[in-house]
Each structure stands twice: as C-alpha cells, then as structure tokens.
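Why this split exists: single-chain examples teach little about how molecules sit against one another. For that reason, every record in the complexes split bundles all components of an assembly together and asks for one structure covering all of them. Below is a record exactly as it appears in the raw files.
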Amino acid sequence: MSTNKIKVNFSKYQGKEVAIIKGKIVASGNSSKNVFEMAKKLFPKTASKDIVLLSVPRERFAIYILKK
Amino acid sequence: MEKQIFPYGFELLENKRVIAFPAITIILKKENSLNEFSFLVLIDSGAEFSLFTKSDAELLEIDLQKGEKIHIGGVAGDKFLAFIHPILIRIGNKEFKIKTAFSSRNDTPRILGRNPLFFNFFIIFDHQKQNTIFIPRKVKPFEKLLYS
C-alpha cells in the first residue's frame, strides 16, 4: 500500500476514476470496477490490494457535506 | 503515544497551482471474503458517514439494493439514493466493521465520514505539514491533555 502523495494532473483526470500502482496512475475511466480490471490486466502479478483506486474530484475546490 | 500519521494522499496539479487533499489509503473487504481492495479516500469531517460508489459495491461483490435504502443530500441541495451495508475497513494496522453507504451512482464522491470512525479516533488535520493524524480514543493521556 502506497503512502506517498500521488500527483494528479487535474485537467487530464478531472472527474475520472483512476487506478494507481506504486504511486503512478496506470488506468483511468468512469467506474472503479472497470479501472481496477484494466489495471489488473496490465499488471497481473500485482496483488489486488496494491492497486489503489481514487475518484479525482470534478471541481478543484470540493466541499462535501452528506446528510441522510 | 500510539498514533498513525498519514501524509495528505494526493495533490491536484493544474498549471502552476497545487492543491493537496487530506486523503488516506484504506482497505475494504466484504465480511467472509478474501478479496481486499484499496481506496484513496478523502477524510471529510462534514460528512455524517462514509460513502462509496455503486461500482465499488460491484467490485466488493455487494448486492447493492439489499442494503437499507437512504436518501443522501449534498451541500448543493442535490439528492441521491444510497444503500447501507456492513463492511470491514482497515486503516493502517487497525481493522473495524462499520456500516457504510454505497451510492446508486458512480459520479458521487468517495469519502470517509464521521460515523463511526470519529468515535474510535481523535483525528487531527495538520494542514501546515500536510498530515492527517489518527490517535486511538483509548489513548487516555491524549484525552486528558485535550480536556485538562
């Protein structure tokens, strides 16, 4: 599991789901399942838990307040 | 003192601007499953509970619609449907069973909210050093320091 800060090119990945292996974005798309499967196909020997999934915010300054 | 320090998880780069986010990598798995998945999630003290996407539920092999149905409201007044499910979450070396919401959509944010994690930890955002610090509630000297 990576603990280093991931650098994300905002204009390129805005609103996208990305898969990260060893700090690098290796796949992107619109759903975590598809992106995970793409990453697994590219790096079949990588353990599933070493593929980190991130939702890149749609806006630079996101405020989330969720209530039932 | 027992604590876990997580550097802010990611930075958005645009032109010469850099914005860092207090996000941490956590591991989720469905109870009784061997499949574990890692997510880099925003820690959001403004959110009552944690939220993951519809696609995350599919990845974890959770039957989304079998959960308790709830309506969630966002800051802009938008509403969407979500379903509550129990899940195992690992943060650093600690694992918990929590109830979390899975959205009926994929375009909703993935966040770690207050309930129930904020009951288990004191969570400090050190924005200057860009670290998020988790201190287990059972660390009584820290609680004493806070309230003395």
